[in-house]
Amino acid sequence: MLDLTRNRRSTRKFTDRNVPGELVALLQEAALRSPTSKNNRPWEFIFVDDSELLNRLSECKPHGASFLKHAPLAVVIAADASKSDVWVEDCAIAAITLQYAAQSFDLGSCWVQVRKRQHESGEPAEDAVKKILGLPQSLRVASIIGIGYRAEHRSPVPAEKLETHKIHFNRYQ
Ligand SMILES: Cc1cc2nc3c(=O)[nH]c(=O)nc-3n(C[C@H](O)[C@H](O)[C@H](O)COP(=O)(O)O)c2cc1C
Question: CA Rg, the chain, in Å?
């Protein structure tokens, strides 16, 4: 696990190679095994490999989503907010679980924030994603994780650069 944390860097450039079906199934299993508050499991995961849909998702907000256009796979993480008061945390945990699972299969990934972001028209990016994928209005959209084989290499952050002053023992000092 420590090696996964050392080597994971956001990947926004992918090769054309598709993510094999066996790995997609394992990613789905990893997502569904994510812990949730009170075991409420409020999330829904939409796995998208259709290039037209990926293209449209890449335009859900003006900045930070464009790389999805060339990603072979994206996982949209949504939730029924009425099922949990901490659905945001539940979705975030599922997102990072997916990212580390992808890393464990030597796949790169990057998070696209959707909640609290806006489409270029000014409407919420969540609504744009809902329209593209036909999600019910009752669902909230948290994020999208783009996944694929890396076409760029990003080195781990060197240990000396970690902000060790942000670690505290017993009392804040
Ligand atoms: C909550 C959250 C939202 C993020 N949103 C975006 C995004 O919308 N677009 C993007 O390209 N990267 C996004 N990222 C990736 C961050 O930019 C990235 O994790 C950060 O710069 C650190 O780089 P690293 O992941 O390579 O360690 C997001 C990451 C997190 C945790």
Answer: 17
63 φ/ψ angles, rounded to the nearest 5 degrees: -130, 140
9 CA from centroid of ligand 1 (Å): 9
Q: pTM of the full predicted structure?
A: 0.98
Ligand 1 center from residue 10 Cα (angstroms):
7
Nearest alpha carbon to residue 76 among 28, 144, 19: 144
pLDDT digits (tens, 9 = 90+) for 20-36: 999 999 999 999 999 99
Verify whether ligand 1 is closer than 6 Å to residue 10 (CB atom): yes
Strand, helix or coil for residue 25: helix
Tens-digit pLDDT profile for residues 126-148: 999 999 999 999 999 999 999 99
Q: Report phi then psi at 13, rounded to 5.
A: -125, 125
Domain spans in the chain, listed from the N-terminal domain onward: 2-166
Q: How many residues does the chain have?
A: 173
- 113 CB within 6 A, ligand 1: yes
Is the shortest distance between the CB of 111 and ligand 1 below 6 Å?
yes
Class of domain 2-166: alpha beta
Q: How far apart are CA 131 and CA 165, in angstroms?
A: 44
